[in-house]
Design goal:
This protein is of the alpha+beta class and 177 residues long. The chain is built from five helices and eight strands.
Length: 177
């Protein structure tokens, strides 16, 4: 399935960073135009519901909660840190923005909310830093109970990590799973 419906990127357009893409297979025998059109329509529908910021429409379009969470995390990870001044948008062939990088970060947060989900309350967690990935903004803590806690951190937390490389970071606002 991944080879049949792969997102295939082309060479950037001259004078810019625009990466043209198509959905399909690099292998000749697997390309089925009707299937690819259906996948492309679903892909565009997902991006449109993200762009709308409507949690109900997003849940109707992406019915599996695990896939919704992974999709939101990947779209967040796709955006460069605000300090870079760069944004990443997705446009169709007509230059219509399917996902506007300048507004997507604020639209992704409400999409995390699940119906009937308990609110996440801040808590102090103490543990040993086991792994840190600046590219994906994730970290892993080993708790005193030997459990592993994985989480993501926001842009506001990264300077604290950099400034206190060798010190203990006493508190942080993490989105953990």
């Amino acid at each position: 399935m991944e080879r049949k419906y792969a997102v295939i990127f082309g060479v950037p357009e001259d004078g810019g960073y625009v990466l043209p893409y198509r959905i399909g297979s690099p292998a000749e025998g697997l390309f089925e135009a009707d299937d690819i059109n259906l996948v492309t329509q679903k892909y565009e529908a997902v991006l449109q519901t993200v762009q709308s910021g409507d949690p109900l429409a997003f849940r109707r379009t992406v019915t599996d909660a695990n896939i919704r969470r992974r999709l939101i995390n990947e779209l967040k990870a796709m955006q460069p840190a605000p300090r870079t001044g760069l944004i990443v948008s997705i446009e169709d062939v007509h230059k219509r923005k399917l996902l506007d990088g300048s507004t997507v970060s604020e639209k992704l947060t409400p999409l995390f909310a699940e119906p009937g989900a308990r609110p996440i309350l801040p808590r102090l967690v103490t543990g040993r830093l086991d792994a840190l990935e600046f590219q994906t903004r994730t970290l892993r803590l080993k708790l005193p109970t030997e459990h592993i806690l994985s989480g993501t951190y926001g842009d506001d937390f990264e300077p604290i990590l950099l400034e206190n490389r060798r010190a203990k970071v006493r508190s942080a606002h993490l989105s953990c799973h």
